Structures are given as C-alpha cells and as structure tokens.
Amino acid sequence: MTSPPPPSSTLPPRLVLRDIRKVYPTVVANDGINLSVAPGEIHAVLGENGAGKSTLMKIIYGVTRPTSGEMQWEGQAVTVSSPAHARELGIGMVFQHFSLFETLTVVENVALALPGKPDLDELARRIEAVSQRYGLPVDPRRHVHALSVGERQRVEIVRCLLQNPRLLIMDEPTSVLTPQAVRKLFETLRQLAAEGCAILYISHKLDEIQELCHTATVLRGGRVTGHCKPAEETPESMARLMIGKDLPVCEHGSPTHTGEIRLRLAGLSHASADPFATDLRDIHLDVHAGEIVGIAGVSGNGQQELLRAISGEEVLAEKFPVQILGVEAGRLNPGQRRKLGMCFVPEERLGRGAVPTMSLADNAILTAAKTQGLVAGGFLSFSRARSFAERCINGFGVKCGGAAAPARSLSGGNLQKFIMGREILQSPRLLVCAQPTWGVDVGAAAFIRQALIDLRNRGCAVLVISEELDELFEICDRIAVIAKGRLSPLRPVAETTVEDIGVWMSGLWPGSELSTDSAAEVAHA
Amino acid sequence: MLRLEPRPEASRLMSYLSPLLAAVLTLMAGMAVFSMLGKDPVEGLRLFLLNPVKDLYGVSELLLKATPLMLCAIGLAVGFRANIWNIGAEGQFMLGTVGATGVALYFQESDSSLILPTMVFAGALAGAAWAAIPALLKTRFNANEILVSLMLVYVAQLFVSWLVFGPWKDPDGFNFPQTAMFGDHALLPVLVEGTRLHFGFLIALTALLAGYAFMNRSYTGFKMRVAGEAADAARYAGFSANRMIWIGLLTGGAAAGIAGMCEVAGPMGQLTDKVSLGYGFAAIIVAFVGRLNPVGILFASLLMALLYIGGEQVQQYMNLPSSISLVFQGLLLFFLLGSDVFIHYRLKFGRATA
Domain residue spans in chain B? Predict the structure, then answer.
C-alpha cells in the first residue's frame, strides 16, 4: 500500500471551493466547505452516507447551486449553471448509478452526451482510441444491456474522457467492481493524473483511499472535519475523522453447532420474463440452522432474481427447487413462505421493505401481522402493532419520532435498522437478508452485523447476499459467489481469502461451467 | 414573480383544505358564469345553494339525491385506495337497477317482506357481476380496467334501453319506455312522512360506516392501502395483487348496484331508460372531493347533491339550461385537481434562490 508521489505543487489549483454552504428546507447539507484540488492530484472526499459528499459534487457539476460560497476554476470565479456548462469548463463526472440507455449501443450512448450530432463511425474510432490509450477495452458497437457492470462503468469513463476533462469526479466507483477490476481502474486513474487531470474520488472505503489518493478531505455532518495525506494516516485515524469515534468491531466467534437444513435450493433454474434480468441456472445451496451463509458477487449477476425466487415474490413453475424448513415451497407466495418461519429483508427499503407514507406501526403490520398476532378476527389491533413497533425501535436503537412517524421520515440507516428489527424480532427460523448494511453508517452497520451473528447463535439459519466482500468475511461461516446466474460451491470462510473470492466473482471457480473465452471476458470486467 | 416550490413533506392540512378551497373557487366561477349569462350572480347563487335547502322538504330532497352518490362513492373509494380505477360505476348502477327490477317484476303479486332484501341482494349481485368483467380481463389479460369499465357503461345503457323498450315494457304503459310500477312490497319505506326520503338513505349511511371499518380497521383494507401506496411492498409482504383487483372492483360494483336498487325501489318505483342522472360518474368526483374518506364522502355527496338540485332550481326560475349542473360538477373537479397541487407545492413570491 504505497501511495504514489504527490504531484508538483507549483501549478495553481484547478478547483478551489470557499465556504460552500447548501441549505435544504429541512437540513444543512454543506456548511462552510473549503477544498482545493491541484492538476494531477487525486483528491479523496471521504465521509459516511449523509455527510454531504453527493451534494458537494452536485454543486461542482452544476446539478444544484450553493446557497452561498465561492467556486474558482483555474483561478477564475465561476458559477456552474448546469452539467452542460460543467462539461464545457472541462469537468467530467462518473456517477455511482449509471446513466446509460440499455437498448442503445455504446457509441449511440456516447453520442447522446456530446453536443451537436456527431458522426457515429468517426466517434466509434475515437472511442476505440481512448479506450486503448487508457486500457479500458470497450466495443463501441455492442448494446449496453449486453455489457457487464464493469464494462458499463468503462463506457461512462470513456464518455467523460472523450471530452478531455481537466477534472474528473468519480462517485463511489468501486462499489460495483471485483477486487481485480478495482486494480485496473486505479491504474487508469493514476495514468490520467500523471497526464495532469485532477481527480475527485468519493468513497467511504479507507483502504482504497490510502492506496490511491494523494490528499483527502473528510466530511462529517456537512462540515469538513479534516484535511490529510492518506499515506501518512492509518485507517483508524481516518475513521476517527470520518465517524468521530473508533471503528466498532463485531464479535463473531465460531458457530456453536449447526443443525438441520433450513433452506435448500435443489437445482434452482429460472428464466426471467424481463430480457435485461439474469437467468438463474441450476443453483444448489444448503443453509443449516445456526450458520450464516454469504453470497458474494458483482451486482447484476442474479442476486435480485435469486432473492425473489427465495422470497416468493417470483413464484416458480415447480415446487422442489426451493425447500424451506423441509417444505417444497417453489409454488408458495411470500405470505405462505413466511408462515413456514422465514423472514426476509429486501435491498430496497423504501417502497418494498416499508411503505413510505405509512407509520412505523402500520409498517410493523406489513410482515408481522400473523406472527405477532396483530390481527384478530380480520381486524387490526393498533395497540399491539404500536407496541411491537416500539419494541423494534427500542431494541434496535432506531432514531425516529416514535411508532407514529411515517417510514419516509427516517434516514436510510434508521429505516434499515427498523426493518431488520421487525424481521429479527419475529424470531425467524430462517432469515434471508439482502445488503443488510447498504447505505448504513459505520456504527449502525456494526450493530446490524452483530444482530445477525446473535441471531445465528440462537440457532437461526441466516442467508446474507451482499456486494460488500469485507462484510461477508466479517460475519459469514460459509461463503459462495454468484456470477452470471450460477452459484459457486460453498467454502468455509476460514479456508478462503478475499483474493480467491475475488477471482470467483468473475465466474472462474473450480469446475465452473463457463467456457474459457466467456470467462476471459468477465475476468477483465 | 410567483413560483411553485416543492414542499419537503406533503401537507396534511392542505389535503383537507383543498376540497374547501375548490368549493369556494367553484362558487366564485359559478357567479362569473351567471353574470356572463346576463343573470344576477347573487340571486343565482341564492337559488342554487340556499333555495334548495330552505325547508324540511328541500333538505329531504337533498339527502335523497345524496343517497346514490354516497353509495357509489364509498364503493369506488375502496378500489381507488388500492389504485384500482373503476370508472364504470354508472354501468354497475344500471345493472343494479336491472337486477332489482327483475326481482320486483317477477314477484309483482307477492306481498312477502323478503322481496326488498332480495332486491338489495339482486342489485348488489348484478352490479358486482358487471364489475367482474373488468376484474377478470384485468387479472387474466392485464386489460386496462379504466377502459373496460368505462366502455361497459354504454353497453349497460343500451341493455337497459332494450329491456324497457322490449321485453320489460309495461303492457299498460301507453308504449312509454318504462316497466310497470312496482308493487307496494317492492318499494322502500319512506323515512319522513310527506317527503320522498326513503330507507335507502340509512343503507347509504351504513355503507359509509362499513366502508370506514373496512378501509381503516380491517386487515384486508390495510392490504389494499399498501397495494395502493407501494405495489412492491405489497408483493414483498405477500399480498395477492389479483385479490386486491377483485375486491376493489366487486365492492365498487356491488355498492353501485345497491345504489341502483335504491333508485328504482325508492323515488322512481319503476325502471325507465333514464334511470341514472350520471350518479356513477358524479360519484368519482365525490370520492375524490371526499379524499376517499367516508366522512369526507358524506359531505362531498351532500355538496354534489346540492349542485344537482340547484341546477334544477336555476333551470326553473332563471331559465338556464339544465346542463348548468354539469358545468358546476366540472368546475368542482377542475378546481380540486388544481388545489391539490398545493398539497405537494407551495406558492413563493420572488426569484428562485435554489
């Protein structure tokens, strides 16, 4: 983990922000932000969710305007009025969520972002030239829906590079990449920086920032809590700047004993009706009582489809492929599967795991109506719903305005804690859980992980599907990888490494059915 | 400069104030309409709003008119809350009149006290059966229930016409397109001596209470609210979307059918080809002005009934066309939709500072 040498500091800064303040009706998102980026500098903006990173980037890219404060671009005061204006200035941005049209080809997508009506053949040649120069292999004539997530990100980057940006903003770029693809991305970014491009790198992953970035600005609660050189810091010291205290650690301990099989997938195959979804192919998996099984993978490799097939939101054609507590459940709907003793936490919290406009008490009824006796004779018992919701709130430290508060008034992390609480307090015999800590701050994430481990220790079977490899290694007993709708064999976590699983995430595991050339294709995805 | 700014939270106060604001704006626009037609606007409003309710008989007529509106609207509200858009209450209402009339004509000579309950049941069943068609097509083929239910209104209209011009025409009726008058045991009892207000009004109030219990207290009503607010959450929780569609449409159809029964067994006493005055369509406005809430629907149906009767009054006294009622209905819906903007937005003066 050696940081490259910092860039020469004789040039004037490319971008300077002075006292940037952004006030929304209910919250001050940025409060007196100062930041300076020099040409050739890779500058990290570090902070937890809700720290104000995204708002700041939106201000720089002209999506929104600051309430007050000054922005200087290459020594001149500017007001960026729109993203088009930002691109004109030489600012490019690669968003965390891609803005590509799936039904168009790569070159068509790129053409849409350029001014005027470019010639597609000529543009395709330029795309090839740029992608060769920066080691970003992209075929300009392929349709976007056929591309892997890593390839899509490359399209986004190439699209930015075509406009010769002098400042590139990368928003959480590695959250969708395999560890190997992260290496490749870092090489590209270093090459860009060496050519004089300034890079703003947004992330909450401390090790990446240490490896890649020359300087860092740390945000907490909309304010700058520190400027530092990551190479001179430790992850612990940066974490203290970021969250204001030490990183919490989970107590894992080895599983006490594993019992009977609670979830069995016996050759689960499912072709989705959606042409852009991933088909599941011959998935075999056993989850025993008293263990946590993790499924890793780059997003978009069948996780969503697998979860829907297990939860019953997508009913299968046959009964046997999904067996819950010994019952062949493939044809059962989610309510019937719950009755068998399964609880389920989906990855979307607002709108799927909870109804935004309804109170937390009503949202408790959503899945706990039957298990907690919140319904009597077809009518709702509001007092019982309220007291169950209060148990979730108190037991999981949910910060909210009480059981009557509407779900959408909670922050993402607090709502996630509420939903986890609602499912865990029903004492499930099998818990299936997607992205348990996605978008949750570090403190709450540790709490949720500990709750999952405690649940396991009480004899529950837990299946966790997550894109955060570190998280899976922290809490799981056994781990598998999903790639292109296929599931790898399960390995005890103690007998494998992040690197091995990273290779598997490309679809290359021992005995993998992927043919060699398609394997090579995903390998550099 | 005036501009709209999004509110951070939808305003609950505004969602209750909006119907009142719409009513006030409707009246003001109504006065403008009166003056444009060369009539005294104050006198027009007095005739429109106050004259109908100046005595007990007037009030009883108001409640009479409100009865079918209440019934149709509460049934529709159940579906609307789950985003099931039944626009065909008018047709379901007519099928209700047909079902009830069939029973009344078949048992014309009977004096059994079971006739009325049977008529209510037949009306509800016929209305629900009519609504079952869009439900079936929606759940089987994903056919849009808005279009199907709406088009079935015209089929129902023609069906009623065919009946009263054909097989059900009163043989002693001088060839008028109407059935024979119902027997005494097929007529709903009058509540207040000297008025036409009948037992159906109590049925409508009961329906409002039942609607409240169902929508706000029952587990099934809860599921329907979830389906309306967040379809993905309903799927996640395991609530069957098809069941919601069936319940929503059948409830709306049955309620409209009962409203139809109350009309033929109440003030009409027979089936004619002009059995509905657009109650099924007006009920859609009632349901929204009433915020899909039983108490709101009670008040909104009274307001809508007033617009119906007031329209007749100005027709009588001021020589204005009867379509003035429809103008007022349209204005009310227009202003309601306009006022609803302020639930999510607020007016700001001055330049944008975002």
Answer: 70-294
Instruction: List CB contacts (< 8 A) between B238 and chain A.
Output: 312, 333-338
Same domain, A120 and A153: yes
Q: Are residues A306 and A169 in the same domain?
A: no
- Of A243, A270, A287, the position where a domain reaches its end is A243
Rounded mean pLDDT of A451-462?
93
Three-state helix/strand/coil letters over B168-196: CCCCCCCCCCECCCCCHHHCCCECCCCCC
Write the ipTM: 0.81
Most B-contacting residue of A352, A370, A384, A410 (CB-CB within 10 A), to test interface: A352
Enclosing H/E stretch for B42: helix B41-45
| Other residues' Cβ atoms within 10 Å of the Cβ of residue A260 | 12
Residue with tokens 């279009």: B147
**Does A150 lie in the same domain as A282?**
no
CATH number of the CATH domain containing A491: 3.40.50.300
Greatest Cα-to-Cα distance within chain B, rounded to the nearest angstrom: 77
Q: Which residue has the higher pLDDT, A416 or A245?
A: A416
**Residue A238 shares a structural domain with residue A271:** no
A151 and A114 share a domain?
yes
Instruction: Say whether both A331 and A215 belong to one domain.
Output: no
A with B: how many residue pairs have Cβ under 8 Å apart? Answer: 70
Q: pLDDT by residue (tens digit) across A284-327?
A: 999 999 999 999 988 778 888 999 999 999 888 889 999 999 99
| pTM exceeds 0.80, yes or no | no
Does the beta carbon of A23 lie under 8 angstroms from any beta carbon of chain B?
A: no
Residue A274 burial class via C-beta count within 10 angstroms: exposed 0-12, middle 13-18, buried 19 and up:
exposed
List of chain A residues whose C-beta atoms are within 8 Å of the C-beta of residue B222: 362, 365, 380
Nearest to A338 among B7, B225, B238 (CB): B238
B229 in contact with chain A, both atoms CB, cutoff 8 A: yes
Beta strands in A28-141 (DSSP E): 28-37, 42-46, 68-73, 76-78, 91-94
Domain that holds residue A270: 259-341+430-439+465-525
- B243/B231 Cα distance (integer angstroms): 13
Asked if residue A324 and residue A176 are part of one domain, the reply reads no
DSSP 8-state secondary structure symbol assigned to residue B50 = I
Pick the residue of A348, A363, A379, A383 with the most B CBs within 10 A to test the interface with B by mutation.
A379
Distance CA B206, CA A144 (A): 58
Whether the predicted pLDDT of B128 surpasses 80:
yes
Q: Tell whether A25 lies on the interface with B, counting CB pairs under 8 A.
A: yes
What is the pLDDT confidence band of residue A514, given thresholds at 50, 70 and 90?
low
Collapsing DSSP states into helix, strand and coil, what is residue A477?
coil
Question: Which residues from chain A sit within 8 angstroms of residue B237, using beta carbons?
Answer: 334-335, 366-367
* Burial track B205-227 (b if 16+ CB lie within 10 A, e otherwise): bebbebbbebbeebbbbbbbbbb
Residue A157, sorted as left (phi over 0), alpha (psi -120 to 50) or beta, turns out to be alpha
Query: Do B233 and A25 lie within an 8 Å CB cutoff?
Result: no
